[in-house]
Amino acid sequence: MVTDMNEINRFFEERQVQLGMNFGLSRMETLLAKLGNPHVGLKYIHIAGSNGKGSTLQFIKEILLAEGLRVASFTSPYLIRLNEQVKINREEISDEDFVSGFQELWPIVQEMDGEGNGPTQFEILTAMAFSYFSKKGTDLVLLETGLGGRLDTTNVVKPLLSIITSISLEHTNILGNTLGEIAFEKAGIIKRGAPIISGVTTEEPAKVIEDKARSMDVPYYQIDKDVHVHGIKQDELGQSFSFSFKDITIENIAVKMLGRHQIYNAALAIAAATIVREDIREQSIRKGIGEAQWNGRFEIISNEPLIIIDGAHNPAGIEVLLNTLKTRYPDYRYRFIFSSFRDKDYATMLQLLDTEASQITVTEFEHERAANAEVLYEQCSKEKRELEKDWQKAIITGKQRTNAREVLVITGSLYFLSLVRKFVYSVE
Question: Are 281 and 324 in the same domain?
Fold first, then answer.
């Protein structure tokens, strides 16, 4: 029996290596049934998407907190420690509650292992979160999918509302080779009785999502068709936009998070908040959007030299990152440190970085899914490319070389950023 967080972390790491990602809902349903189905009775907003899930969730959370609601959230992955993934309001689950929740599940995990039907690391963590939220009591749970939607571990709930933030080519070996196929998997979170809001505007995946909504006979709202953004203003001090949805119009909403894409995430969040809480106050919307932040998303972690970390983990994310850099720092040169999981489209990601980079350093980190630095190097065509297998040394060298009119950008994998963020703050 484990007794502390260090033992749980080791168990989860070993479990991930042993079982990896094993999709399907039967194990999760069995695990929850043996636990007493703690997920039943909670109210959910279920969020899927290739990019933007975490940011959209944060916007919704801050709006609802401003309304005085008690809001739980389950997100992945974490940046610093496992507890971040399970929160009520802004408070992470305590080590004591985490250990207690794990110990509650342990006999069930052992029983299922003995039956040859052992739950994955993510299934155990998700079940723990449901149990914790059920015990602590919440007005609403904001639930982010892990990967995909239809067969994702979280897709055992009946939500009040579903959101699909975006669709791009990712995990093609699992989700499909076209945007339409990936949209089909994401649209698997759409349930009867729960409206769906979509940030997807590309014709092929948008039609898949709309068709699924119509087949389930639920209200369907799409950005640019039903949820409107206009009056966007961006400068070095920040950004703002105006919003309209149904009979609601709000002008000049200030956004703390950087990047044009965050404006559209904020718009999805406002629409969601107005659906689940019809009498929501405009001041709560303004306060929530103005205060929401999400670490690891275009996050400035040093000003001298200027260092930005961004969890761009697919080509669409890299495009957004580059657009934000060019808007925010148009007269700077961009140095990149890049590392990725091997099941990501790192070749396209590096090709995109090549178009804007003054220099690229590829590196690697310790994880069973991590891409080899030599493989990444071969995919990078930039003349000023470097290979440094030691990611910590790559960061130290990058900091030393970055001058006053340059930005050092570290990107490619959220898991990689969790290591980077901890390291950079520890050596300052």
Answer: no
**pTM of this structure:** 0.89
Please report where in the chains the tokens 């649209």 appear, as a residue.
187
In a 13 Å sphere around the CA of 208, the CA atoms on its Cβ side amount to 19
DSSP letter for 332, please: S
Q: What is the pLDDT of residues 15-33, one digit of tens each?
A: 888 876 677 899 999 999 9
Q: What is the pLDDT of residues 209-224, one digit of tens each?
A: 999 999 999 999 999 9
At 43, give phi and psi (nearest 5°).
Answer: -100, 130
Strands 299-303 and 306-310: antiparallel
The DSSP call for residue 166 is -
Residue 255 in contact with residue 263, Cβ under 8 Å? Answer: yes
Burial class (CB in 10 A: 0-12, 13-18, 19+), 87: buried
Task: Tell me if 350 sits within 8 A of 338, measured CB to CB.
Answer: yes
* One domain for residues 267 and 372: no
Last residue of a domain, one of 226, 258, 291: 291
> Tens digit of pLDDT for each residue in 140-196?
999 999 988 999 999 999 999 999 999 987 665 557 679 999 999 999 999 999 999
Residues 115 and 49 in one domain: yes
**Can you give the CATH number for the domain in which 271 is found?**
3.40.1190.10
| Number of domains forming the structure of the chain | 2
364 contacts 371 by C-beta, under 8 angstroms: yes
